[in-house]
């Protein structure tokens, strides 16, 4: 099991989605299954149903433990099942390493100032060539506090917009 951790809005889920997409594209695994946006107070039955649906399983009146056993037979992991991986994301290292037993954890952190600016410019596109907008863009990037999700969201929203909208 592999863990990806970091504070909220750094793009952990986006990264996991991209990994899943790439794994499907290159046929890295027979099946790619994702359960995302799990709250701090997770609903195990809902998560199990979501995963089961992706695997073509249907549950009857089984309890949580029985559903877990059925899922485990379809989602192999560990030494016995080489070639299978589980990727988990969390804000808390304890959840990953102690709670879920991840073998390798990656820490995602804020972007550097240069990378933040680069991501914003790339996303906003040609509009960044306008000198008047560059000064406003510097302020916008600072307001995003080097959070990739914020940078991309704001840059996409401002792309191809007038100077008046940027100033607002």
Alpha plus pi helix count: 8
Trace the largest sheet across and list its strands: 2-1-3
Give me the oligomer status. single chain
Largest sheet entry = 3 strands, parallel
- Helix-strand pattern: EHHHEHEHHHH
Average per-residue pLDDT, rounded, comes to 86
Distance between the termini: 45 Å
Number of strands: 3
What features would you describe in this structure?
This protein is 51% helix and 7% strand. It has a three-stranded parallel β-sheet with strand order 2-1-3, sandwiched between helices. It is built from eight helices and three strands; from the N terminus they run βαααβαβαααα. With 168 residues, the protein is mainly alpha-helical.
Layout: helices, strands, pairs:
Layout: E1 2-5, H1 12-25, H2 44-55, H3 64-74, E2 87-90, H4 93-99, E3 104-107, H5 113-124, H6 131-143, H7 148-158, H8 163-167
Helix pairs in contact: 2-3, 5-7
What is the compact description of this entry?
This protein is 51% helix and 7% strand. The protein contains eight helices and three strands. It has a three-stranded parallel β-sheet, with helices on both faces.
């Amino acid at each position: 099991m592999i863990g990806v951790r970091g504070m909220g809005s750094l793009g952990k889920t986006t990264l996991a989605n991209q990994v899943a997409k790439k794994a499907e594209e290159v046929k890295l695994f027979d099946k790619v299954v994702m359960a995302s946006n799990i709250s701090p107070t997770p609903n195990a039955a809902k998560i199990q149903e979501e995963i089961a649906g992706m695997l073509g399983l249907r549950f009857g009146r089984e309890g949580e433990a029985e559903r877990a056993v059925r899922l485990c037979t379809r989602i192999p992991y560990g030494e016995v099942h080489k070639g299978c991986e589980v990727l988990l994301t969390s804000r808390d290292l304890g959840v990953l390493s102690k709670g879920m037993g991840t073998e390798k954890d990656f820490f995602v952190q804020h972007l550097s100032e240069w990378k933040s600016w680069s991501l914003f410019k790339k996303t906003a596109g040609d509009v960044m060539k306008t000198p008047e907008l560059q000064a406003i863009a510097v302020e916008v990037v600072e307001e995003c506090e080097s959070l990739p999700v914020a940078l991309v969201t704001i840059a996409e929203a401002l792309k191809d917009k007038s100077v008046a909208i940027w100033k607002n």
